[in-house]
Amino acid sequence: MKFFKSTTAPFCIVLMFVALVGSVVASAGSVNTDDPAALPPLTQEELDEMDVGVLFKARGAEEVYAYCAACHSERIVSQQGLTRDDWIELFEWMVDEQGMEEIEEPDLTLVLNYLEKNYGPDRPNFPGKKK
What we know:
Layout: H1 2-5, H2 9-28, H3 44-49, H4 61-68, H5 74-78, H6 84-98, H7 107-118
């Protein structure tokens, strides 16, 4: 118990408390990057700075461009119009038959969310489609 009788003990306890509270506050304001849906919307500046070829500029476009354009044109992606399950099946085929590296989480969910929303069966962002 000599520790608690020292003059530095109260200071150490206060310091530990401040550090604990600070870490709780800091984590409360942080974004879970493992969950793409929890990411904040992109700013117009971020969208304007994207270099993703013909792909629709939105969250996930840069990842789709990086993974897909490594082997083929992004135009192939933009022309598909697949369901989420079809995109998954296509990725599995590319991994099994074409030597593509598997896309790990959280990127896989981010890529699938982007493709499902922007290049699903209704193809809202098909190049040249009149809106």
